[in-house]
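Journal club side-thread
Mid-discussion, someone asked how the predicted structure for our own chain would compare to the paper's figures. Pasting it here so we can look after the session.
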Amino acid sequence: MSEPADAQARRDVPPVICYPNDTLPTVDLGRLRAARDAAEHVETVIVPARDAACFTAKAGQFFRITCVDGPQVGDLNLWNAHDLSERFYSGKTRALHGTHLTTGERMWSSFPHLRPMATIVNDTLDWYVQDQFGGSVHDVIGTRCDPYTGNLLSGTQYHYCCHSNLTRALADHLGVDLAQAEPHVHDVLNVFMCTGFTRDTGQYFMKASPVRPNDYLEFFAEIDLVGALSACPGGDCSSQHSSDVAACYPLRIDVYAPPKQALAGWQPPARNGYDQTHGR
């Protein structure tokens, strides 16, 4: 169809930010980093290449995801350790902070809770910002590589994609079968992954991650957490995911506990204050 006479005028209407975030609770990075500096190491969990592992972090602790042997991206799920129905909400996190997360930004939980689950306190890749293609690091765009989409597009039965990895890890952690664990697996924070949208077709793209050994992303646990991290079978995602061909490497998770006095007076965030009457 031909364009209307005012087509360009319609395109030129300026955008409006849907969720201005200047009223969000502030993050005291200075205090959190001081607490982290005083913290003692609690636990290390190694996530094998093309697999996943679970970890726990109590409210007020810190956890760090580190690239160890070679460039590798990871898919992160978070749950309330006492109620798995409260889990990371990537869509609302994206609406509040944008398509990619970095220092001072938070992973928010699902309705009806909608509160911070974890806050990023250190990001060694914050220098990347955005490249000429519109790519940036640590996205909340992609859902996770999964066997269902692989089957839809190419008829495969690939079991070591991130969705399946996270399902196995959570099932093992909870001591339940796969069918019970799978519904809890959800859209992820793509740690270290470099992604964006093509400007011509608007398609989600990935490119080689800038991550290198000893780079890390570090979080403050706002509530008691169970986490699961998959070392994606795409490796650095420079060519493909859900692959047995890409070079893949382990990831390391370290948990740290600060002394109580370092966070004196701090409390985990309360559940969202909406009354849930929904107009009735």
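Post-session note: The chain has one domain: 45-211+223-259.
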